[in-house]
């Protein structure tokens, strides 16, 4: 969408000036010969933004030699931002919830083939939200506003959808994993897909996964 391009064009100018690489949902991989790559989703929730729904954000992670080191997510409509460095505890923390019963869970909207798994989560949790912006939803897990976020098997996520959560959620005491245990990797090939699971604790992540796969 045009809103993605507006944000991305400004970042392209900066990465060329600073001689770092870029991996973006829109531009793909821009190689400036650096060991550092900025992995971004210029506007996560672009459909929300285009229609005036105030749920969209910028998400970017600095990756050095294939490892995410630092991340920033900024909520456009409020200005709230979440910054984290790998291995450094954040000022915000997850809820620490360990069980799905009583949990507040953000879910990706049900898609073909995931409806049954979606309903199993919805029927087990206390509250369900569908906000249509993974990068923002995983930050809500990190700060303890909700207990978890899960894609119940649609394999929608590309690496830029999960890059900031890979740094921020663990720094806040939570976990980010793939539904099927696939490792996350930063490569120019954007055909790789995942079903991300962000949870306040490993125990909650395990129960979410078991509920999705247990049908």
Spatially, the strands of the biggest sheet line up as 2-1-3-4-5-6
Radius of gyration: 16 Å
Number of strands: 11
Mean of the pLDDT scores?
94
Shape annotation: globular
Descriptive report:
The chain has about 220 residues and is α/β, with parallel strands linked by helices. It has 2 domains: about 1-85, 2-Layer Sandwich (Fructose-1,6-Bisphosphatase, Chain A, domain 1); about 105-215, D-Maltodextrin-Binding Protein, domain 2 (3-Layer(aba) Sandwich), CATH 3.40.190. The chain is built from 6 helices and 11 strands. The chain has helices at about 1-20, 45-50, 115-125, 135-140, 160-170, 200-215; strands spanning about 20-25, 30, 35-45, 55-65, 65-75, 80-85, 105, 125-130, 150, 175-180, 195-200. The protein has a 6-stranded mixed beta sheet. Strands 8-7-9-11-10 form a 5-stranded mixed beta sheet, sandwiched between helices. Helix 3 (about 115-125) crosses helix 6 (about 200-215) and helix 4 packs parallel to helix 5 (about 160-170). The longest helix is centred in the first third of the chain and has 17 residues, at about 1-20. It starts with a helix and ends with a helix. The mean pLDDT is about 95. GO terms for molecular function: inositol monophosphate 1-phosphatase activity; metal ion binding. InterPro entries: Inositol_monophosphatase-like. Keywords: Magnesium, Metal-binding. This is Myo-inositol-1(Or 4)-monophosphatase. It comes from Lentzea flaviverrucosa.
